[in-house]
Amino acid sequence: MEIQQDLRSHIRFYFDGELRTLNSVRASDMVMRWLRSEAMRTGTKEGCNEGDCGACTCIVGHLNEFGVIQFRLINTCIYPLSYLDGGWLISVETLSRSGSLASVQSEMLPLNLSQCGFCTPGFVMTIFYAQISQQDQTPEEALAGNLCRCTGYGGLIEAAQRAQNLPIDSAFAAEIQKVEQVLADLSVGGFSITTGDSRIDAPRALQQLLDLRDHFPSATIVSGATDFGLWVTKKLDKPAHIILTKFCKELVSMNPGPDGIEVGASVSIEDFGKVLLSEYFELREWFKRFGGPQVRCSGTVGGNIANGSPIGDSSPVLIALGASLKLRSRRAERIIPIEDFFIEYGKQDLHPDEVLVSVLVPRRKNIKRLVVEKISKRYDQDISIVLAAMAEFSGGSSRYRFAFGGMAGTPALARKTMESLNPDDLASDFSPLSDHRADAWYRLAVSKNLVDDFLSGSSFHE
User: Fold this and answer.
1) Are the beta carbons of 308 and 318 closer than 8 angstroms?
2) What is the pLDDT at residue 397?
3) Which end of the chain, N or C, is less surrounded by CB atoms within 10 Å?
């Protein structure tokens, strides 16, 4: 089988007032390394190198379907350099290119928001993003992806609050208009780069993605890269061949219908969460604790499911809602209930030539109650000890779906408990493990309490 060869062998993006073209991009290259070592923009700091502290935060903008730039907050330490294609990279130095500080920076100065100063550039970028995105969020929610060891959060929260009420600087507004014209002339995705023993394919259409998947079954499929980035920075993996789904138009679309919403597998958690909230208002607490803003802007719904993690925050919720997955290969398409996708730890029902294309989320219709409870050691940006998603359906007789993450090798339904409505039966549904986050007895005890509270109607987040 021949793979289409009319693809670019480089990426192009806008940065610091000019269009950049990079020819030698490797699968393991992350934005932060390029910024600091090649572009020599050292304001961006390397902290945890795993997307947790926010010191490396920058902003990326891509044109949406209406030709308007949509900004995203990113952790550059785990954001692949190849993902910049067709976009605009904004670093902390970008904000003062006009020769004076941005309004956000000027507002932060009198608040004495820098002691050691290491985390400050990341906070500047996050607060600037809060200003330009104008989202309905508290300052604490806006800053959830950034950590500071010495300054204290009182002033930082005040700065974020002030920023949300400031107009966008005129110099930056003018730059937006200029960049929108530049990006309109660029294609996004549609490249194949081979550098030494590294290859990156970035198909723009589903058929080409399926062809690549069939022809290169051992290649790593990369979606949001919030996991993939850690393989590179923490495991020191050197991937030989990656196939990006980020630029595949069919996988980044959302199609609402009368019975459900089809969400492309490469839709970001940020966009996915907003769609779910419009249908299920009870998910606001779950959504704002789904990583930090940087993780939600990069991570994708398909990636969070396809990695098969037993503690992924999206899978239990989708299982409780009765969602399905659409899987495609060159041979056929199939749709399966999401709970059937997870076979055992590290094993999913995905054939070597298949790709997760979309998630089919049912409309609310018969759901009377929905409660999602996340138990973790800290409130923001933490991995779940247990995540319980519990739904009650209306009909001739009440019907329940209880789904749990963190209780087994995969996210799963508590089938016996759903039938008996006896929380003690969770011990028959699951045999949780003890690890550094929690003991097995604790996981079981807290899960019983959550089910008991739900059945008694006393769940906190109803």
Assistant:
1) no
2) 65
3) N
Mean pLDDT in residue range 287-304: 95
Long-range Cβ contact pairs of 235-240 (< 8 A, separation 24 or more): 237/28, 238/27, 238/28, 238/197, 238/198, 239/27, 239/28, 239/198, 240/27, 240/197, 240/198, 240/199
- In terms of phi and psi (left: phi > 0; alpha: psi -120 to 50; beta: otherwise), the region of 337 is beta
Q: What percent of the chain has pLDDT over 90?
A: 85
pLDDT one-digit tens code per residue, 70-101 = 999 999 999 999 999 999 999 999 998 888 88
Residue 103: both structure tokens together: 């309004």
Instruction: Provide the residue ranges of all domains of the chain, joining segments of one domain with +.
Output: 11-92+174-244, 103-168, 253-456
| Residue 365 pLDDT > 60 | yes
Per-residue tokens: 65? 């379907």
Cα–Cα distance for residue pair 170/269, rounded to 1 Å: 31
Find the Cα–Cα–Cα–Cα dihedral 320, 426, 395, 284, rounded to 10°.
-40
Query: Rounded to two decimals, what is the model's pTM?
Result: 0.93
* CA angle (173, 176, 180) in 5-degree steps: 150
60-64, 147-151, 249-253, 338-342: which range is least confident on average?
147-151
Q: Which residues contact 322 (CB under 8 A, 6 or more apart)?
A: 337, 362, 401
Q: Is 219 in contact with 212 (CB distance < 8 Å)?
A: yes
Instruction: Give me the residue label for tokens 């779950």.
Output: 286
Say what the pLDDT of residue 1 is. Answer: 44
Instruction: Report the CATH architecture of 11-92+174-244.
Output: Roll (3.10)
C-alpha 90/C-alpha 15 separation (Å) is 7
Q: In the structure encoding, which two tokens stand for residue 106, read together? A: 């000027």
CATH class in words for 253-456? alpha beta
